Input
Amino acid sequence: MASIAMQTSRRAILAAVPMLGAAQTPSDRIRIGIIGAGGRANDHYKELSASDLNARITHVCDVWKVAREKFAGQVKQAWGAEPKQSTRYQDLLADKEVDAVILTAPDHTHSRMLKDAVEAGKDVYCEKPMGTVLSEARDAFIAVKRSKQIVQVGTQRRSDGGLAAAAKAIRAGMIGKVTRADIQYHFQEPRWRRDFHMIRAEDVDWEAFSFGRDLGKFDARKLREWQLFPPLTNGIAGLWLSHFIDLAYWFLDDPYPSSAVSHGGVYMWNDGRVTSDVYHTLVEYPKGCMVHFAMSMTNAAGSRHLWFGTRGLFDGEKLKLSPDGSKDPQRLEGQIKLQPVEMNSHLANFLDCVRSRKAPRADIQCGFSHAVAGIMSSEALRLGRKVAFDTGRLEIV
Output
C-alpha cells in the first residue's frame, strides 16, 4: 500500500492534470497528416482510401525521400490531390489545414511527437507503444490530460469484439478473482527483415530520424530494421508485450504494475541484432495478479492466452470461459462460448471520436498504462533485476 506521502503526491499530480474536455468539432471531412510512411502507414492508407470514413490524407512526413514520395503518389491516386511533404514533423504540426495526425514513425519518437501534436492542437492516433522512455511517456500523458485533444493509442485489441466480451465477463467476476495469466506468442521467421542496401545517405534526413538519440553516423540498416536496435526500440516489450499487457488493465481494472522481472537474449538470430529473440517477463499487479508473457522467434510453437480465476478459466484463443482448474464451490457450472460484441475498426472509432469529442476505446490512460508496463519489463531485462513502480510519483524505482 502506498504511504500517505506517496498518496498525497499522486493526488497533487492528478489535481494538476484536468480530464479531456469538449472542443470545437472540425470540418466534417477530417484532414489527416501521416508521420512515418512505412508499413503501418500503408495499412491506415488502405483503410482510409477504401472506406467511407469521410477522411483524407493531406500531409505526409517521412525522413526517407523514397518512402515519402511513394506514399505521396498513392495518396494523390486515391484522392486526386498531391499531399504536402516534409522530413520534419514540426512542419506538419504547424499547418492549420491538418485536423488530426497518425503517428506511425519508429517507436523512439512516439511520446515526444504525441506531446508536441496535442500541444499544437491536433487530435492524434498514436501507434503502440505509446512510449519507450518513462520520462517522455509521462510528459506526453500529462500533456494529453491537460489538452482538449482526442488521442487513440494503437492497441487494436481494444477494438476486438471477442476481447470486449471477455473484458465485460471477467470484470463482472464470472471466473472469480484472477490471480494469474499466461500469454505466449511464438514464430520462426525474420519478420523484421528489410532490404537496405539501396538506401543513399543523401535521401535521408538522418538528424530527424535520430530524434536526439546518439545513433552515430548514417546507418541504412538502423533506418530499415530499427526494431533490432536500442534506443530506437525497447525490443519485445514495446513491439509485442504492449498489445497483450494492455489486457491486464482492461480485464482487471488495475492500471499500473507493482513490479516486473524479465529474462531474455539472442539465442538464434545472431545477425547483429541487439534486442532479444527469446523473452520472458513476469509483471505483477497490485490487486493480486501475476501476468507471464513469453515470446520467441526461434520456434513456431503457436500461441497461448489463458487467464486463471478462482471460479474458472478464460481461454483467449478459444474465446471460452470454463470451470477448468477450479475447486471453488461457486465455480462455473459449465463452459461458456463468448459471443463477440459488434465493433467498428480502431481507426474508425478514432475518427468517430474526433467528430463527437467522446473518449476513444484506447485513450491516453490505456496508452500510458501499457507504456509503464513495457518500460518496466525492458528495464528489468536491461538491469538484470526486479523493478517496481511508484504510483505516487509515476516513476520506476
